[in-house]
Automatic annotation (TrEMBL):
<feature type="binding site">
    <location>
        <begin position="20"/>
        <end position="21"/>
    </location>
    <ligand>
        <name>substrate</name>
    </ligand>
</feature>
<dbReference type="GO" id="GO:0004619">
    <property type="term" value="F:phosphoglycerate mutase activity"/>
</dbReference>
<feature type="binding site">
    <location>
        <begin position="113"/>
        <end position="114"/>
    </location>
    <ligand>
        <name>substrate</name>
    </ligand>
</feature>
<dbReference type="InterPro" id="IPR029033">
    <property type="entry name" value="His_PPase_superfam"/>
</dbReference>
<feature type="site" description="Transition state stabilizer">
    <location>
        <position position="181"/>
    </location>
</feature>
<keyword id="KW-0324">Glycolysis</keyword>
<protein>
    <recommendedName>
        <fullName>2,3-bisphosphoglycerate-dependent phosphoglycerate mutase</fullName>
        <ecNumber>5.4.2.11</ecNumber>
    </recommendedName>
</protein>
<keyword id="KW-0312">Gluconeogenesis</keyword>
<feature type="binding site">
    <location>
        <begin position="86"/>
        <end position="89"/>
    </location>
    <ligand>
        <name>substrate</name>
    </ligand>
</feature>
<feature type="binding site">
    <location>
        <position position="97"/>
    </location>
    <ligand>
        <name>substrate</name>
    </ligand>
</feature>
<dbReference type="GO" id="GO:0006096">
    <property type="term" value="P:glycolytic process"/>
</dbReference>
<comment type="similarity">
    <text>Belongs to the phosphoglycerate mutase family. BPG-dependent PGAM subfamily.</text>
</comment>
<feature type="active site" description="Tele-phosphohistidine intermediate">
    <location>
        <position position="8"/>
    </location>
</feature>
<dbReference type="InterPro" id="IPR005952">
    <property type="entry name" value="Phosphogly_mut1"/>
</dbReference>
<dbReference type="InterPro" id="IPR001345">
    <property type="entry name" value="PG/BPGM_mutase_AS"/>
</dbReference>
<feature type="binding site">
    <location>
        <position position="59"/>
    </location>
    <ligand>
        <name>substrate</name>
    </ligand>
</feature>
<comment type="function">
    <text>Catalyzes the interconversion of 2-phosphoglycerate and 3-phosphoglycerate.</text>
</comment>
Length: 246
């Protein structure tokens, strides 16, 4: 049993180095190319899917659509959930990461970006960025609508979705791809790899690179690997890590 996880291709705000979270920004030109390259690679390597999952955010849905287009898999069901959305970045959404580090200190920004349980400053509910103002979140309860999220809080919505929706489909033999986000995937990888709350701060996920997990019948991880040029992937991981450096 196998699954392919992919973080969306580079977004306009990855390019501008801004905290993004639930802001629904588009892919950059480079991001479109990354998604195309991911689709080509998956096709070349003989991957096939019969079910896909993604978030409510267009940088992930478009990445998935591009991949499925290249693989000629338009027919497969695509299930979308806000539970796979990026971690909500609270009042940091829209701010430049390097400028914020200059202002608030690199250590503080590292804590907001990568600590396990310290959320960024919260939004007010009357802030125009509050997700309760968006039609796509109208089915969420007030308790479900975030004003900020730590990784821990992200895990609390991603993992039930994984356990209840995705795992039964993997066990039923479906061939699945999940297109999601840096931190919603960090939440999942933390669980799959058994990474501690401390160690998770050093895990970074590059854009547009297919990440394969192989499981035994009990969902124990047998193997994991990124598809593609391993040296380039290592450089891209490092680039994500260093985004708050000017
Ligand atoms: O801005 C964000 O929403 C995320 C992903 O792009 O950033 P970071 O890697 O800093 O958590």
């Amino acid at each position: 049993m196998k699954i392919v996880l992919v973080r969306h291709g580079e977004s306009e705000w990855n390019l501008a180095n801004r905290f993004t979270g639930w802001t629904d920004v588009d892919l950059s030109e480079q991001g479109v190319k990354e998604a195309q390259a991911a689709g080509e690679l998956l096709k070349e390597e003989g991957y096939d899917f019969d079910l896909a999952y993604t978030s409510y955010l267009k940088r992930a849905t478009k990445t998935l659509n591009i991949i499925l287009d290249i693989m000629d898999l338009h027919w497969i069901p695509v299930l979308k959930s806000w539970k796979l959305n990026e971690r909500h970045y609270g009042a940091l959404q829209g701010l430049n990461k390097a400028e914020t580090a200059e202002k608030e200190g690199a250590e503080q920004v590292h804590i907001w970006r990568r600590s396990f349980d310290t959320p960024p400053p919260a939004l007010d509910k009357d802030d125009e960025r509050y997700p309760g103002k968006e039609a796509k979140y109208k089915s969420l309860t007030v308790e479900e609508l975030p004003t900020t999220e730590s990784l821990k809080m992200t895990i609390e919505r991603v993992m039930p979705y994984w356990q209840e929706e995705i795992v039964p489909q993997i066990k039923a033999g479906r061939k699945i791809i999940v297109a999601a986000h840096g931190n919603s995937l960090r939440a999942l990888v933390k669980h799959l790899d058994g990474i501690s709350d401390e160690e998770i701060s050093s895990l970074n996920i590059p854009t547009g690179r297919p990440l394969v997990y192989e499981f035994d019948q009990e969902m124990n991880v047998l193997n994991k690997y990124y598809l593609g040029d391993q040296e380039k992937i290592a450089q891209e991981i490092n680039k994500v890590k260093n985004q708050a450096k000017s």
